[in-house]
């Protein structure tokens, strides 16, 4: 039985039959879609193998990939994968799969760079497109454009590895962004940004936080966080200092302190940076800022890891960019106590630590 659903300006038909590859096509009107579906089903009933690859678009392949994933590993609407597929469908969806060529992928990468995407982000999207073509395009004559074009994309600097960002917002930059958001988009967006900067939480964690997950007396929040082996796990995260002050003043009318959509939050954050002329600042840099500020305040690496959720302490180096002048704010006694705790944590004997203190 064919499934017919509204898709953008047209109507998408999907036909699934055991022993056959799913057939997907988008037509202009519902009547055309129904007629086309009946004709294809009649051919299948007669024993024909129908693969209309000549009219299949990349957008239809992307949708077919989403549906293939539904049975085993559904793609969450809040995941990075969902947003990558959205970008690919928006930029390349109208192209015929059989006509897809390197120049199309290069043009897409250049357009994404103009939108502010970095080489690592574009590389991830290109890789995801390769996955779509590999799995949703089985049995179709779809060229390996991703494999052919990668050397050119790398040569032009359009794709690359993540590197290590060290960008942190200056205190004045963060203040101006928060004020701009409050004035133009509402206080809830301004507070969400401030909370992200002081709590070192990810954008999705901030927006998903619920009042029911907060232990008021302990200033602890239960946060669902990514785990390298277990998927998402629930962790008890301390909310420290100004992050708690921002949280406390939020309205209890909604079940969430920050009832905003993650994508909208990023959109408004970028709009504020553009309007204020603040260059090269990403929302995720607020997490970097939060972790670095905790180190500058004198917290140890194991304490910062409790806040940020890092399982491998070495990964904290990516977020930690200390300001040299901040060391003057830590008195020598605090430094000795911190060194003692770190030494014991690494398994050194107390006598050895004591001898170094003398």
Keywords:
358 residues, mainly alpha, DNA polymerase, domain 1, hpI Integrase, Chain A, 3 domains, three-stranded antiparallel β-sheet, 15 helices, 6 strands, elongated, disordered C terminus
Walk me through this protein's architecture.
The protein is mostly helical. It folds into three domains: 1-46; 51-161, Tyrosine recombinase, N-terminal domain (DNA polymerase, domain 1); 171-322, Intergrase catalytic core (hpI Integrase, Chain A, Orthogonal Bundle), CATH 1.10.443. Helices cover 51% and strands 10% of the residues. It has helices spanning 30-45, 58-70, 80-92, 102-114, 119-136, 145-155, 171-184, 187-199, 203-208, 242-248, 262-276, 285-296, 301-308, 332-345, 350-357, and strands at residues 2-7, 10-15, 23-27, 214-215, 220-227, 231-238. Helix 7 packs antiparallel against helix 8 (187-199), helix 8 packs antiparallel against helix 10 (242-248) and helix 12 (285-296) packs antiparallel against helix 13. The longest helix is centred in the middle third of the chain and has 18 residues, at 119-136. Mean pLDDT is 80; it is low at 340-358.
């Amino acid at each position: 039985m064919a499934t017919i659903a509204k898709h953008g300006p047209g109507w998408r038909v999907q036909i699934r039959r055991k022993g056959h590859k799913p057939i997907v096509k988008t037509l202009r009107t519902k009547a055309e879609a129904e007629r086309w579906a009946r004709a294809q089903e009649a051919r299948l009933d007669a024993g024909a193998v129908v693969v209309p690859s000549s009219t299949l678009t990349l957008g239809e392949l992307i949708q077919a990939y989403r549906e293939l994933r539904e049975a085993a590993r559904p793609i969450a609407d809040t995941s990075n994968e969902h947003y990558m597929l959205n970008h690919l469908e928006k930029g390349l969806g109208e192209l015929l799969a059989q006509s897809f060529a390197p120049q199309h992928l290069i043009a897409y990468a250049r357009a994404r760079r103009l939108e502010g995407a970095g080489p690592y982000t574009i590389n991830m999207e290109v890789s995801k497109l390769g996955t779509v073509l590999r799995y949703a395009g089985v049995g179709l004559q779809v060229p390996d454009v991703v494999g052919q074009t990668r050397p050119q994309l790398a040569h032009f600097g359009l794709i690359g590895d993540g590197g290590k960002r060290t960008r942190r917002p200056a205190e004045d930059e963060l203040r101006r962004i928060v004020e701009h958001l409050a004035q133009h988009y509402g206080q809830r967006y301004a507070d969400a940004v401030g909370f992200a900067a002081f709590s070192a939480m990810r954008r999705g964690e901030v927006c998903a936080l619920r009042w029911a997950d907060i232990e008021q007396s302990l200033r602890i929040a239960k946060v669902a966080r990514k785990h390298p082996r277990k998927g998402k796990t629930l962790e008890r995260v301390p909310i420290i200092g100004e992050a708690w002050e921002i949280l406390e003043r939020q309205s209890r009318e909604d079940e969430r302190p920050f009832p905003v959509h993650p994508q909208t939050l990023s959109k408004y954050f970028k709009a504020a940076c553009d309007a204020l002329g603040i260059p090269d600042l990403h929302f995720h840099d607020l997490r970097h800022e939060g972790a670095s500020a905790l180190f500058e305040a004198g917290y140890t690496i194991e304490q910062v890891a409790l806040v940020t959720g890092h399982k491998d302490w070495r990964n904290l180096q990516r977020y930690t960019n200390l300001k040299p002048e901040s060391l003057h704010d830590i008195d020598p006694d605090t430094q000795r106590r911190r060194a003692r705790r770190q030494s014991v944590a690494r398994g050194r004997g107390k006598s050895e630590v004591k001898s170094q203190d003398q």
